[in-house]
Every structure is written in structure tokens, then in C-alpha cells.
Write a structure and sequence with these properties.
The protein has 2 domains: 118 residues, 3-Layer(aba) Sandwich (Aminopeptidase); 56 residues, no CATH class. Helix 1 runs antiparallel to helix 2. 28% of the residues are buried. A hairpin with a 2-residue loop joins strand 7 and strand 8. The strands form 2 sheets. The chain has a 7-stranded mixed sheet, with helices on both faces. It has 5 helices and 9 strands. It is globular and about 50 Å long. With 176 residues, it is α+β, with helices and mostly antiparallel strands.
């Protein structure tokens, strides 16, 4: 059984290793390293209470690489307003994908955000990440804004994260 807990700053090196390993099957080592750069230590320094870890208890059959970490969600409550929460980065061990592990993390994040008075959750996804796009839609997220073009029926915001870094913006109401 996987145990849910808040993230800690000391989890950072493990999460970086997880990203580099878990995405190694779909990216070159350099691409996986670049992806891990989207998860700087500061996210755990300032948003550990709102970020979540699912881990296998030590010595359990599910324990293994990554120090027992099997999935994680890095998210935060917007400091600019009292209604929004944002999911920044999510990782699930490849062997656990498709087993509702991501759904469990999102549900826990939604519950904690709602307890804190948040009513809306936002996330962004690269338009080429078909699995993540489908997952967010299945979790009740809807595309936000008109975008600059439509790809696969979804509005894409060109250069959202810089030149050539297009994104689909998602929103989900969780309360209020």
C-alpha cells in the first residue's frame, strides 16, 4: 500500500532522480535532465505543505528505486489570490501508470486545496503530451481561453512559456 504524505525539502534529490529515470523511456538522457530542471528545489522550500508524495513503506514489495517514492505532485496555492491552486509537476512511476495513482494524488490535492478555501485548480500541459491532456480532461479539467490555434480540439496558447513553448491551459472548479 502506498502512503500519502506532504513533501519535504529533503525529497528534492530523490524527485530529480525519479524524473530523470521515469521519463528515460520516452526521452533522451539530456531531455530527461532538462525536464528535471522544471522542478527546482525552491518549489519544495516554499510549497512542501501543498505538495504530495506517495511512497512505499520501507521494506515493502513496492519499495525500490527512488527511495520508496512511487509518485509525487508539486503544487501550491496562489499567493496572488485566495481562490486558485496550481498543479505544477506530477510524476508517477512507469509501473504504476494507469492504476489511478495520479487520480489519488489529484484528489488529495483537491481536498486539501478546498479545505484551505480554494475553489479553482489550474494546470498547463504541452500540446504534444497526449496522455497528460487526456488525463486532465478525465479529471474534469476544461480548456481555458481561446488560444492562438486549435490542436486536437484544444486551444493552444503559443509561446506561453517562452518562444516555441506552447501550452494548453486547464481549469477545474473544486468548490465554492
Amino acid at each position: 500500500m502506498l502512503e500519502l504524505r506532504p513533501a519535504r525539502v529533503t525529497d528534492h534529490p530523490t524527485l530529480v532522480r525519479c524524473v530523470r529515470h521515469w521519463w528515460g523511456d520516452s526521452r533522451t538522457p539530456e531531455e530527461a535532465r532538462e525536464l528535471s530542471l522544471l522542478l527546482p528545489r525552491l518549489f519544495l522550500q516554499f510549497f512542501s505543505r501543498t505538495s504530495l508524495i506517495l511512497e512505499a513503506p520501507p521494506g515493502s514489495p513496492a519499495d525500490g528505486d527512488g527511495g520508496g517514492v512511487r509518485a509525487f505532485l508539486v503544487g501550491f496555492h496562489a499567493p496572488e489570490n485566495t481562490t486558485d491552486a496550481y498543479i505544477h509537476f506530477v510524476g508517477v512511476h512507469p509501473a504504476l501508470r494507469g492504476q489511478d495513482v495520479g487520480r489519488r494524488l489529484y484528489a488529495a490535492f483537491f481536498a486539501r486545496a478546498a479545505e484551505a478555501g480554494r475553489t479553482d485548480v489550474r494546470a498547463i500541459v504541452s500540446p504534444g503530451n497526449a496522455a497528460s491532456l487526456a488525463f486532465h480532461r478525465a479529471m474534469g479539467f476544461t480548456p481555458e481561453g481561446d488560444g492562438d490555434r486549435v490542436v486536437g480540439g484544444l486551444p493552444v496558447h503559443a509561446d506561453y512559456d517562452g518562444p516555441g513553448e506552447d501550452r494548453v491551459c486547464f481549469h477545474r472548479r473544486i468548490g465554492g
